[in-house]
């Protein structure tokens, strides 16, 4: 799963509005906000971000909150980004006192009516073979592939290298 880099735009990007899996095309992905009108039952992605990297760093993580307001279970089965040569779904977990990272070869379940957080130290999108450094204030795009909902392209704000969550997420 690889693509070319397309970074850009300032990232005072507000991602609190859901992006609907069925209505993602034709959105204005400008610097102010990326929004879509979602039907009452929708799979949505919010608070997407990644962290700035040092020049030459080959990897980065992508983080977001996925809410499945539909009545059917779904599964995140893949991702791709023009920012990376390889994009995978990963999990970090403690095993025998050691933090280990592994690819989620079967994808990540998104149960009906549930919200699943992809956060530092847990589930995340892994961007490998970065095409260029990720610069704070920019943004990248990632296309998520769901078993049922299909593809959803979302912008990820590039935040500070130590960012733990999207600004305002705890408010």
From TrEMBL:
Keyword Iron-sulfur: no
InterPro entries per UniProt: LpqE-like, Lxx211020-like, PCuAC_sf
Signal peptide as annotated in the record: 1-23
Keywords, in A-Z order: Signal
Entries under Gene3D superfamilies matching the protein: PCu(A)C copper chaperone
SUPFAM superfamilies: DR1885-like metal-binding protein
Keyword Kinase: no
PANTHER family for the chain: BLR7088 PROTEIN, COPPER CHAPERONE PCU(A)C
Descriptive protein name: Copper chaperone PCu(A)C
